[in-house]
# Entry
Amino acid sequence: MANIIQIKKGLDIPLPGAADLGHVEACVPHRVGVMPEDFPGYTWLPIVSPGDKVVAGAPLLVAREKEQLCVVSPVAGRVSEVRPGADRFVEAVVVEPSGAKSDLIRHEIPTMDSAREETVRLLCRAGLWVLMRQRPFDIVPDPDVIPRDIFVTAFDSAPLAPPVVDEQMASDLESGLSVLARLTTGRVYLGIPYDSSLTSKAARVYEFQGPHPSGNAGVQAAWINPVNKGEVIWTLDARTAVRIGRLMLTGETDASAEVVVTGPEAEHPCMIHTIVGADVSQLLRGHVKETVRHLRVVSGNVLTGQRVEPERGFLRFPYRQITLLEEGDDADEFMGWASVNAGSFSVKRSFLSGLGLRLGALRFDARLRGRRCAPILSGEYDRVFPMDIYPEFLLKAIEAGDIERMEQLGIYEVAPEDFALPEFVDTSKQPLQQIVRDALMSLRAKQIDNQGR
# Structure
């Protein structure tokens, strides 16, 4: 019997446009893109040039700091573009698929008795290592560090998020969990939704009940066994564990993805079987309402996803969801953001909808609805932050640059995604996720400097 943890703090946003999971389509993209920004903590250098032919599973990017870390091509084909970004960094490596399914790298699978280092090398070569995250710092894990524990989440509680795994993936998931158990001196924990039928012999299973962010692996870790200063844990989703299990069974990197097109502006929201990094314009074909004028496309959920351009963007990590919203920049609303109409969602009962008075479905768009101002200590973050941390005081310590205070307040436990809901309810409209990301990268840079000395 699984252990049950009930989370009371949080918020489920009633965003319309949930996908019909019974309606499944397929999309073979004409282009796929690999985005270095999706793999934080390292400087990624391209090792291919436009015109190069690659096979599926071939390295496209390597980490300057750790050469064994690489990001691989999801498909076989030709490199069409190495897109430059800001500050001379690479924004994306774009590959045009050839359609040849046999052009792929098959890896030699280590035995169960093999040394841990062989499994680590395989996951690095296969490009699956970069899909995991390390705390502290919320970065791609260091291959030379053994984690205290590994936390795997089997569900996503974000708005309109799809199932992470299904029953057909159960055996691959168990295989992946067995591999992960060989990489840690501690335990592997699997977080599942309440009343789920998922079980595991390789991991200790916990059931979570409650609103978002109960599906975040970091929140689950905080409730099961929090990370302390000097300790390292890894987090990942169960779909990544499935990919690891399939690698160990077949020797091939699984680059398939199950994506849902969702949101208020999605026409016939559904699930699409495609490839990691697929071209967004093809995924959206036939799925955008004709009435929408100014569309915002988010690769991911509305809280933590990345805004992408419909014609140039690609499916971003964790490769599960695309959300379509109206920008709202041309909205003509009486009293603007201060309107008390019954069609706007309200957390603080500022609108009539917060009092239970609604006129039809709630309307959501991408407007900030207010302006940025100085933070106010009102306790509003605490109501949606289910970790044993004082988020407002931690953010004040970050703004002050007080490292000792940050450590005392739990900076090593958190990741930017943990502050997505506080950012959503924030009256001051502060970019909390970016503030936390900058602080974590600054702390890591100081740690590297101290180790260099």
About this structure: Residues 432-452 form the longest helix (21 residues). The longest strand covers residues 77-84. The two ends are 50 Å apart (CA to CA). The chain has a mean pLDDT of 92.
